[in-house]
């Protein structure tokens, strides 16, 4: 890297663009869309940072990534150190660098953004995380994890080897900063669970991560498509967390296999963190929704991403390869579904949304990418029914045009139907991406666990404490559908609260 | 990995595997199911639990060879081998009454999931009348095992080669006509069989429970692949079921949804056959 010279810092330098696959080409493959910064890009971009004395970027980060510090290291070309700096607070930097809505968080707070374009913090985070991963073998990851365990600032105290980790070599064994011998069960291995498990492991607790599916990662593996978040990256971040000593148990459907109370009693865990996700897909309750060719976005994406149905029949799981596909909804999940459908070979993919472009809840970047790839936006339209043939296959989506009236409780203008404006969209596949509701499984199976009136787990906003003493919860199962980073923030706060709880309960 | 302790062929194309799964065996209740995945390229398929033994730490699964995954399972996975993934127990357990008169009906491979339910009913002090039906003698499975937990037992075959020559609905109707004290009917088997059992009991107004074999992916409520109309409302078989009121299930929709991937299922089999005779890496 010595031959690369830092350009002189200038806030006026335009934000360094992210190299991307050509839209026409990428709309037919599952390779990553954004290609990542080169070393030169990263140095150029980092040089734009004003190194504010009172930085306001960090406050926007739900997991408190030390942004000024890591960017300063990037400026100096100390990429590995920059990655380590981020990992002090964020176990999933390669994920966050890709899927966080930075424009609403860190970059929204960037002082540069007041007069110029904000610093591309997310792209820099991705760069250092990717670079570090590329330079590390599997052994390296474990060595790195050991280093992370050893270098934690919290005062070390000798203890005996925690139980139940006997099958693995536990990095940092013999040194723990949590309460000796205390064990924590984390339910759900999505972003919230991974973050909580990682933080608790770094504190020295013995952590088991329970995952209902056959692969850890939650929404990172079943929901977010390969072209936005390659699964190898998730795997390597999970491996890092395993390297911290976290035991991962897949195929473990908590609520069925073990109850929450059972984990605390029979299995000897001292605390439980529930991060099981929102789960249950919603439908519109319109005629024809059970026809073949109608999917929830969850099903469509799970088949494509987790089960790799886009590689059928090399992989066993089938998926409808629609010629004309309608995706109903306007969030990031709708964009993902539409872009997957396009990559599966569709001629037309329509995004049917009842409000206008202004109200689309998806990230601007996702909307832009979808638009570039040829997704056709059917805005201000709402489905009223799905049509099918005699064999039960979808043949069309009946829609009605909408107009916007006065703002409703959410502050968005309320859509209403335009009388007599019904029309039929000629499609063979319909994907409902209109949100999820709480999966009732754990709530129903856990006596004494208070739920909200919408079925989510009632938990303290800061600590995640539920109505049960040793049970904490966070992420979508508490808040309803939100973002990866919001769940990570909840996991982080819960780890702190569980640490405090276990210290007190030990006294 | 879940070790296969015992593989047994019950009939032509029907197999029983005893799998080491102590946690599932401890948690399992009658009426629940598991989801299995064979290998890294595998699909997730739901299978009913045919037996479970908490003390031995084992779960029995019974399946019929109907597609790529079941064919590969039967051909390539033997005693001493292992399944990559087994998740469960899934679904809501059966409601087991006490002191009632119950008819349990199993059709074809549907006899297997009936067994744990009949056993639970029997152990709870119900009077259990068992009826099983198969196409022909060679396909009759688990007859003695099921009969042992029933107070009365009738076997039928479509062609009369074993037991009574009849469809299960005939003895069902006769029992209902003969005695008016039947409280519950549980019928598990192919969709049409369950449909006609429900139609048979409807005029007698006897509560009839069926267990639906919908297409699933995760099996925990996350994807909604298994949705089915019951009493005019859409339900998820994995989370709300798999047992439902047979008088309220839209069986035509069930049949329609089960045909959702017919083309791909054939393709998958062709692809499997197109390769080497055995695709497994063992």
Q: What report would you give on this structure?
A:
- The complex is a heterodimer of chains A (507) and B (282).
- Chain A is α/β, with parallel strands linked by helices.
- Chain A folds into 3 domains: 23-134, Fumarate Reductase Iron-sulfur Protein, Chain B, domain 2 (Orthogonal Bundle); 156-278 and 440-455 and 462-506, 3-Layer(bba) Sandwich (FAD/NAD(P)-binding domain); 281-436, 3-Layer(bba) Sandwich (FAD/NAD(P)-binding domain).
- Chain A has 18 helices and 18 strands.
- Chain A has helices spanning 23-26, 39-46, 67-75, 79-87, 93-99, 106-109, 121-134, 138-150, 191-202, 219-222, 231-243, 260-264, 297-306, 332-343, 364-372, 441-445, 476-479, 484-506, and strands spanning 157-158, 175-176, 183-187, 206-210, 247-249, 271-274, 279-281, 294-296, 324-328, 348-353, 376-379, 381-388, 394-407, 413-417, 423-425, 429-432, 436-438, 471-473.
- Chain A starts with 22 loop residues before the first helix and ends with a helix.
- In chain B, strands 6-1-2-5-4-3-7 form a 7-stranded antiparallel beta sheet.
- Chain B has 282 residues and is of the alpha/beta class.
- Chain B is globular and about 55 Å long.
- Chains A and B meet through strand 7 and helix 13 of A and helix 1, strand 7, strand 14, helix 7 and helix 8 of B.
CATH-defined architecture of the largest domain in chain B: 3-Layer(aba) Sandwich
Strand content of chain B: 25-35%
Coarse morphology of chain B: globular
Spans where pLDDT lies below 50 across 5 or more residues of chain A: 151-176
Helix content of chain A: 25-40%
């Amino acid at each position: 890297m010595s031959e690369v010279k830092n350009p002189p810092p200038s806030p006026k330098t335009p934000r360094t663009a992210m190299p991307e696959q050509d839209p026409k080409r990428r709309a037919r493959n599952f390779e990553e869309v954004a290609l990542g910064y080169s070393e030169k890009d990263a140095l150029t971009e980092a040089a734009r940072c004003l190194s504010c004395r009172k930085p306001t970027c960090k406050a926007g980060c739900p997991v408190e990534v030390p942004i000024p510090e890591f960017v300063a290291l990037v400026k100096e070309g100390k990429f590995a150190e920059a990655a380590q700096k981020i990992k002090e607070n964020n176990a999933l930097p390669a994920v966050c660098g890709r899927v966080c809505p930075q424009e609403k968080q860190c970059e929204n707070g960037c002082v540069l953004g007041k007069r110029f374009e904000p610093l591309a913090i997310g792209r820099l985070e991705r760069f250092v995380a990717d670079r570090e991963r590329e330079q590390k073998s599997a052994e390296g990851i474990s060595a790195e994890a050991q280093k992370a365990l050893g270098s934690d600032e919290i005062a070390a105290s000798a203890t005996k080897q925690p139980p139940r980790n006997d099958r693995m070599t536990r990095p940092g064994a013999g040194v723990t900063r949590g309460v000796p011998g205390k064990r924590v069960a984390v339910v759900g291995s999505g972003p919230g669970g991974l973050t909580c498990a990682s933080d608790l492991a770094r504190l020295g607790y013995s952590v088991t991560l329970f995952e209902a599916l056959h692969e850890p990662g939650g929404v990172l593996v079943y929901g977010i498509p390969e072209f936005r978040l390659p699964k190898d990256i998730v795997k390597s971040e999970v491996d890092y967390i395993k390297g911290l000593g976290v035991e991962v148990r897949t195929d473990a459907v908590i609520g069925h296999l073990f109850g929450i109370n059972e984990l605390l009693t029979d299995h000897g865990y001292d605390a439980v963190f529930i991060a099981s996700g929102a789960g249950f897909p919603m439908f519109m309750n319109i005629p024809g929704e059970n026809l073949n060719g109608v999917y929830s976005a969850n099903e469509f994406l799970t088949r494509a991403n987790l089960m790799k149905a886009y590689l059928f029949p090399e992989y066993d799981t089938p998926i409808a390869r629609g010629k004309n596909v309608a995706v109903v909804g306007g969030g990031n999940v709708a964009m993902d579904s539409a872009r997957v459908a396009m990559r599966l070979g569709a001629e037309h993919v329509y995004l049917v949304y009842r409000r206008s472009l202004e109200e689309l809840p998806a990230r601007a970047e996702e909307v832009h990418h979808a638009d570039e790839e040829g997704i056709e936006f059917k805005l201000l339209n709402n489905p009223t029914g799905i049509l099918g043939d005699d064999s039960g296959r979808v043949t069309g989506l009946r829609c009605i045009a909408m107009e916007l009236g006065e703002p409703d409780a959410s502050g968005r203008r309320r859509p209403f139907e335009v009388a007599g404006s019904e029309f039929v969209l000629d499609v063979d596949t319909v994907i409902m991406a209109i949100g999820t509701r709480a999966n009732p499984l754990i709530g129903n199976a856990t006596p004494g666990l208070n739920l909200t009136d919408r079925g989510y787990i009632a938990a303290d906003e800061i600590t995640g404490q539920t109505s049960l003493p040793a049970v904490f919860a966070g992420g979508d199962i508490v808040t309803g559908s939100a973002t990866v980073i919001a769940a990570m923030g909840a996991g982080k706060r819960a780890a702190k609260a569980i640490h405090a709880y276990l210290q007190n309960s030990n006294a | 990995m879940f070790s296969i302790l015992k593989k047994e062929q019950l009939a032509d194309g029907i197999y029983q595997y005893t799998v080491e799964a102590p946690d599932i065996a401890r948690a399992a209740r009658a009426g629940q199911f598991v989801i299995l995945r064979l290998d890294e390229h595998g699909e997730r398929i739901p299978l009913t639990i045919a037996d479970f033994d908490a003390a031995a730490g084992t779960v029995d699964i019974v399946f019929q060879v109907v597609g790529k995954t079941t064919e590969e399972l039967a051909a390539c996975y033997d005693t001493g081998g292992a399944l990559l993934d087994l998740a469960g127990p899934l679904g809501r357990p059966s409601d087991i009454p006490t002191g009632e008169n119950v008819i349990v009906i199993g059709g074809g491979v549907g006899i297997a999931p009936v067994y744990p339910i009949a056993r639970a009913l029997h152990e709870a002090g119900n009077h259990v009348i068992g009826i099983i039906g198969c196409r022909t003698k060679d396909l009759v499975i688990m007859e003695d095992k099921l009969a042992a937990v029933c107070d009365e037992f009738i076997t039928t075959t479509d062609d009369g080669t074993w037991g009574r020559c009849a469809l299960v609905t005939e003895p069902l109707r006769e029992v209902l006509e003969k005695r008016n004290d039947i409280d519950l009917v549980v019928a598990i088997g192919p969709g049409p069989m369950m449909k006609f059992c429900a139609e048979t009991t409807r005029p007698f107004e006897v509560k009839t429970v069926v267990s639906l074999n919908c297409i699933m992916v995760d099996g925990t409520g996350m994807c909604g692949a298994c949705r089915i109309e019951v009493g005019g409302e859409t339900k998820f078989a994995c989370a709300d079921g798999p047992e439902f009121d047979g008088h309220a299930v839209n069986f035509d929709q069930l049949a329609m949804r089960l045909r959702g991937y017919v083309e791909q299922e054939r393709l998958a089999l062709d692809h499997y056959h197109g390769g080497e005779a055995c695709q497994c890496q063992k």
